[in-house]
Every structure is written in C-alpha cells, then in structure tokens.
Amino acid sequence: MSESELIKACQKNDRKAQELLYNQYARKFQGVVLLYVPYSESKDILHEAFIKIFLNIKQYLGKGSFEGWMRRIVVNAALNYLRSKKRISFPGEEALDNQTEEPEFTTHQEFTESQLLEFINAIPDKYRVVFVLSCIEELSHKEIAEQLGITEENSRARLKRAKTMLKESVLSHINSPI
Questions:
Q1: Helix 66-84 and helix 15-34, axial crossing angle in degrees, nearest 10
Q2: Measured between alpha carbons, how far is 39 from 122 in angstroms, rounded to an integer?
Q3: Are 69 and 118 found together in one domain?
Q4: Can you give the pTM of this predicted structure?
Q5: Distance (Å, rounded) from C-alpha 167 to C-alpha 171?
Q6: Quick one: which of 45, 114, 154, 178 has the fewest CB in 10 Å?
Q7: Do 78 and 124 have their domain in common?
Q8: Which CA distances in Å does 155 have to 63, 78, 118, 124, 130?
Q9: Residue 25, H or E segment
Q10: CA torsion 168→27→142→54, rounded to 10°?
C-alpha cells in the first residue's frame, strides 16, 4: 500500500490502515519521544500522539512531508506532557547568561546510541528540550521561542547551558575509572 493510499484509508478510519501506520512509524517516533522524556513515560506519550494523528489526519492535505507532519504532532505531545508536569517552564524564571559563546568540544571516543541518549536525558528538562529542538529537530531560536513561549535570548542561553552540561557529562564518563 502506498503512503497516499495508507493516508486515505486512515482518513476513513480504517483500523487496519491505522495499525499499519502505527507499526510503520511507532519505533521511529518512540526514539523521538525518548529525546524528551525517560522510557518509563514515553509509551503513553507515543500512544497519545498517535491518537492525535488519527483524530487529525483529515487535516493533512498532502502538502509537505507526511512523516514531518506526524513528527510535529509527536514532538508537541512530548512538550505538552512536559508542560502538564511543569517540567519545562516559561519566560522569566531564570537569569540569562550574557556570554554567547558556545562550548567547544571534540572527542574521538565512540559512544553507543543508548549512552548518548543517557547523556542527553541527564540534562534537566528545560535545557534538554531546547537542545533537542535546536540540535535534533533543527528549529531556529525564533521557532523554539515561539514553541515554548520564551525569548530567543532565553533559548540561546538554555542551549548553551545544555551543551555545557552535555560536555560535562561526557567528560565525566571519559575520565571516570572503568
């Protein structure tokens, strides 16, 4: 079944097509959700995101990437979850760091995907969310600010802090005795 046929079938609430769509994308989107929350919380968010996808699929008009459209719903579900748990906050709760330089860092050590996910998940939510939106979702600071209801400067400061924390975590791992 082609993507357009699958979408049309899902728009008609065809349960088999919905199951096929879920099976095709769930693993990939589970990885996206894991960038925002720990594994123990991720499955509920993923299921909530797919419910939203199925409820709103009639709004997808075939313009742009369907996967990108769904990914935006998945990311928004994760962000809404964090907001509901008050794990990401909004404007004015932190002093901005006037220094705009970002930490430089390179290592030749290789890490597994799960190790990298561990390092990223160790960053506190309000910094990790900006890191993921910027470095993985490739949103601009303007887009991040609009998404989170913060200033662009606050977004830059949070990204800088997240990168510093990530660097410290990686260095700590590298320098720790085995």
A1: 60
A2: 13
A3: no
A4: 0.69
A5: 6
A6: 178
A7: no
A8: 29, 18, 22, 14, 7
A9: helix 15-34
A10: -150
Range of the domain at 61: 3-84
Distance separating alpha carbons of residues 166 and 178, to the nearest angstrom: 20
From the list 101, 166, 103, the residue with the least C-alpha distance to 132 is: 166
Residue 102 lies in a domain: no
**Span 120-148, pLDDT tens digits:** 888 998 899 999 999 988 999 999 999 88
Tokens found for residue 145: 């600010």
Do residues 135 and 158 touch, judged by C-beta distance below 8 A? no
Q: Would you say 73 and 49 are in contact if contact means Cβ atoms under 8 Å apart?
A: yes
Amino acid (one-letter) located at 71 = R
| 163/105 Cα distance (integer angstroms) | 9
Q: Residue 29 in contact with residue 66, Cβ under 8 Å? A: no
21 falls within a domain: yes
**Are 118 and 61 contained in the same domain?**
no
- Rounded alpha-carbon distances, angstroms, from residue 149 to 79, 100, 133, 142, 159: 12, 21, 14, 10, 15
- For 89, 106, 152, the CA distances from 147, given in Å and listed in that order, are 12, 30, 11
